[in-house]
Design a protein that fits this description.
It is built from 13 helices and eleven strands. The protein is an alpha+beta fold. The protein has one domain. The strands form five sheets. A three-stranded antiparallel sheet has the order 3-10-11, with no helix packed on it. A two-stranded antiparallel sheet has the order 1-2. Helix 1 crosses helix 13, helix 6 packs antiparallel against helix 13 and helix 9 crosses helix 11. It starts with a helix and ends with a strand.
Length: 294
């Protein structure tokens, strides 16, 4: 049976796939030639990613064009969280488009909130319920490298964020760190992975500034502030996985909001006016290309 979380990371935990979707939202790319020109990806690789998005119901092929479906449009919150992380935690923030709430005119990253109780939520405000048996499904199977395909140009900070979500192992390690796991032995016990593979993933996450290893803490790894800031990306990935796989078995991974006790149903809140943001109420503005609605 399909594990919804594993299937979501297989599909969306990929630099080229997220670039395809970002261009579909921000620049309204619909044709193969537009993505080919903007990403520089080999034709066969680009075709494979587009076909995977069509098969997953994220894109629909209409003649020579690909258009976002309802499920595809629901990816917008994930992309906004990726943008927010890049905007706040990478050196290339100045080249990114501006995020604007049309109703109040506020420019800048929104914040995640709990849709159930209406409170702003961070990783510190949540508990993660994790079925250890489910981790086998999440981490087994296809292991596409986060570094396998690197689209050319216009992808500020993607290499860094893909270290955290670019394949099942990296996503599982980052997710466990968000759940409070710190020690090497605890990561290994939870994931049942070889010491060599775990060391390699942890080292890459340290080099990307997602984790750090305090000298006095032995084999302990802790999230940095930029690592904790990935919380919104993971929260919306999990929420999207439920929508994409409504008939799938319970994935064994849930985030609970500690203050209200409910499973986290995330939403985005404007920092300017505190309104809950909907897709049609926000836009990205390119400095030289005008505005585009996500």
């Amino acid at each position: 049976m399909t594990n919804s979380v594993a299937a979501t990371f297989d599909l969306l935990g990929d630099r080229l796939t997220l670039t395809i979707l970002r261009l579909a939202f921000v620049e309204h790319a619909r044709r193969f030639s537009q993505w080919s020109e903007r990403t520089g990806a080999p034709p066969a690789v680009l075709t494979a990613r587009l076909n995977a998005l069509v098969d997953a119901g994220v894109l629909a092929r209409e003649g020579a064009e690909y258009r976002l479906t309802g499920l595809g449009l629901a990816v917008w919150e994930i992309l906004v969280c990726v943008w927010s992380w890049q905007r706040e935690w990478t050196a290339e923030w100045a080249v990114l488009p501006e995020f604007v709430h049309a109703d109040c005119g506020h420019r800048g990253p929104p914040v995640p909130m709990c849709r159930t109780c209406g409170r702003t939520v961070t990783a510190h405000d949540t508990d993660v319920a994790l079925d250890r048996d489910a981790l086998w499904h999440i981490t087994s199977g296809r292991r596409r490298s986060a570094r396998a395909v690197a689209p050319a140009g216009g992808d500020a900070g993607f290499a860094e964020i893909m270290e955290a979500i670019g394949d099942r192992w990296s996503a599982a390690v980052t997710g466990l760190a968000l759940a409070g796991v710190r020690r090497f032995s605890e990561f290994r016990a939870a994931l049942d992975m070889s010491p060599t593979t775990l060391t390699e993933r942890l080292t890459r996450l340290v080099e990307a500034g997602i984790l750090h290893r305090p000298e006095a803490a032995g084999r302990e790894y802790r999230l940095t502030p930029r690592g904790r800031a990935l919380f919104g990306v993971f929260a919306f990935l999990l929420a999207w996985s439920d929508r994409a796989h409504p008939g799938a078995p319970e994935p064994g991974l849930r985030i609970h909001h500690r203050e209200c006790g409910a499973p986290l149903l995330p939403a985005l809140r404007c920092r300017g006016c505190d309104a809950v943001l909907g897709r049609t109420e926000v836009r990205f503005e390119q400095a030289s290309r005008g505005a585009a609605r996500p």
